[in-house]
Amino acid sequence: MKRYGFIFMGDYLPEHTATFEHGGMRTSIYTVGSFEEAKPVVERLYQEGYGALELCGAFTKEMADTFMEMTNREMAIGYMTHNPVLDPAFNRFFAS
Question: Which fold has domain 2-94?
Answer without folding.
Answer: Rossmann fold (3.40.50)
